[in-house]
Amino acid sequence: MIQQAQGILREQFGYESFRTGQEEVIGKLLQGEDTLAIMPTGGGKSLCYQIPALMFHGITIVVSPLISLMKDQVDALQAAGIGATFINSSLSLRETNERLNLIRSGSGDIKLLYIAPERLEAAGFKALLEEVEVSLFAIDEAHCISQWGHDFRPSYLRLCEHLNEMGNRPLVVALTATATSAVADDISELLGIRQENIVKTGFSRDNLGFQVVKGQDKDRFLMDYVKRNETISGIVYAATRKEVERLEALFVKEGVKAAKYHAGLSDAEREDAQEAFLYDDISVIVATNAFGMGIDKSNVRFVIHYNLPRNMEAYYQEAGRAGRDGLSSDCILLFSPQDSHLQHYLIEQSELSDERKENEFRKLRDMTGYGYTEICLQKYIVQYFGETREDCGKCSNCLDTREAADVTIEAQQVFSCVKRMGERFGKVLIAKVLTGSADQKVKQWRFDSLSTYGLMKNRSQKDVLQLIDYLAAEKFLAAAEGQFPSLHLTEKAVSVLRGELPVMRKAAREAQRITANVDAGLFELLREARRELASRDHVPPYIIFSDESLREMCRYLPQTEAEMLQIKGIGTVKLEKYGGVFLQILQNEKMNQ
């Protein structure tokens, strides 16, 4: 059966071989095993259920959290000649009934049906599921099931109940890009998926260049970077609606084609912004985290976070929207220590339970550590998710060749102070003691009598706090649980105090410009042809052909239909629909060489 799956991969989707993990997930499903797939954004999760859906007799139900995601997926499938549709609140009652009747007819025209989790609570839809054969139930963004995940949704948790209520429970596949081991265990337990059927392909994204930019004017850096890369698509994330409004206005003033997206806009305004971005009518979209879950735009070349996200899961999911086509892309965090104070405040003011708040504070500390660490940024990320890897060699930390300064003495002063304060207090009070503050709390605890009091009086509290954060990021200091955690020494810090281990620290590095390695003129001709076809067919350009496909065309200059089929992402259906236009351009290019 896996040979049949490979044939579908080649004929329908235009790929010669499976990506890591895809064949394993598909193989388990074809053997009738419920499966959990944990694969990075851009790792090809969708094919893990789309190919089995075409092989199974009945329909496949795909649970998806956002309307935009459903439309994206369905557009792409229909462009490849595959029967797919969605039912959500964007449809009229007549349109919904037409689609339900088509599925109910059993004609086989529809193989995949995309729905929101809330749809399963409608009595009419439950009745439909009893009438038709549901072979596979795919749960996308499955981390939403777990209350320990970063985006828990009660409607997702109820999926488990709905599945168990179905008279003939279908095969289940759950898929996510961001699940720690604890979240993965929670998902598998709730859905009854056996441990041996959890497929993890690793969290590394080798085509992404992660960068942390510190100590710079954020606005100036952002404008310079975007103007240097004005011909490519990118997302800029900001923490608040007000910041999104300000940055979008700044882009427009500077002549950058940009739009804004946040929950305070009307549905029509958000849809217009998203459509403009998907269709390459604008190059930059400025958004809060309300934008992007499941957005399948493959040619996003950069994702810039203007503010610190709340946790690593959210950051990696948002940053992972860059480079879904496998091409080199930038993921830049404009790091400012005060951003963590905003996120801390937002958690504090939320209506979460005390237990969940404590979990969120811990996640925020790990996210803040990312801004301070000097180890490989990819390594930091995958370690957070419980894995290991070698240095990536391309992140801002790996590329920073400047010599590190020896800060062993300063580190020893911090560690000594933490120890003398009984390892019972947080970083703010520690910094006040070290800088010789006359704060009432310092006097109340008589810390002004400690030998470490005022050891760093020639430095600002801000500098000392940043040093403490750096030492925590490098695992010299560990934090207890809670909103205002106390710090204690790790074994690494003890080794430093004994003089057995030095502490080195260096500054961050400025982000670099993306460079292309194909004929820019030919690539632009192909992009323009793609844009015209997309406008004609009312679909986003990347659904015609991805940037990766266009770059391969530039590189290999295929001259025949047979040669076009060797280009990644081109199957027989797309070749028939679109191939002629691109072949003509490529043949002309060859003649002019």
TrEMBL record:
Q: What class of enzyme is it?
A: isomerase
Where in the numbering of this chain does the HRDC domain appear?
516-593
* InterPro entries linked to this entry: DEAD/DEAH_box_helicase_dom (IPR011545), DNA_helicase_ATP-dep_RecQ (IPR004589), DNA_helicase_ATP-dep_RecQ_bac (IPR006293), Helicase_ATP-bd (IPR014001), Helicase_C-like (IPR001650), HRDC-like_sf (IPR010997), HRDC_dom (IPR002121), HRDC_dom_sf (IPR044876)
Keywords of the record, alphabetical order, are: ATP-binding, DNA damage, DNA recombination, DNA repair, DNA-binding, Helicase, Hydrolase, Isomerase, Metal-binding, Nucleotide-binding, Zinc
Listed GO MF terms? helicase activity
Cofactor(s) listed in the protein's UniProt record: Mg(2+); Zn(2+)
User: One Pfam annotation, family name?
Assistant: Helicase_C
Reaction catalysed by this chain? Answer: Couples ATP hydrolysis with the unwinding of duplex DNA by translocating in the 3'-5' direction
Q: Which residues form the Helicase ATP-binding domain?
A: 26-197
Q: What is its EC number?
A: 5.6.2.4
Q: Where is the Helicase C-terminal domain?
A: 217-365
Q: Cross-referenced PANTHER family, in alphabetical order?
A: ATP-DEPENDENT DNA HELICASE Q1, DNA HELICASE RECQ FAMILY MEMBER
Tell me the protein family, please.
Belongs to the helicase family. RecQ subfamily.
- What is this protein identified as? DNA helicase RecQ
